[in-house]
Amino acid sequence: MYADSVEDREDLQQEILIQLWKSYQSFKGNSEFSTWMYRVAINTAITYLKKEKQRAGNHTETPHYFEIQNEDYNPSKDEQLEIFYSVVQELKAIEKAVIFYFMEGMSHKEIGENLGLSEGNARVKLNRTKEKIQQIIKKSGYEF
Prior knowledge:
Elements: H1 6-23, H2 33-55, H3 75-88, H4 93-103, H5 108-115, H6 119-140
Helix pairs in contact: 1-2, 2-5, 4-5, 4-6, 5-6
């Protein structure tokens, strides 16, 4: 969700690995290792997204491709996925992160821990982001 092209995703993945390597010595064990990794990854992705937006003059294109395995192909769901990704591009970085974590199946508590928020604040941000997505969809005339 933070990079549109395959090349950008590969660059971002490499940047995340570099940041994990550089910051490993700062891991103190106060949280799960996976939580720490998520936090480094999401912070790196947010920073990367901000740099890309500045470089592109605050203009982000909606990806026109989706990697779909043949056995999973469903034209209706493919269209919904395309709409969803278009809508997600209109969200702020923190909103993208909240939705990303939600889609990963994380609890409000886990989302909060990964983003440095309280559980309640994470719940509120998630609900507001869901509402914002619905408003963007309605405003754009998309139908599900």
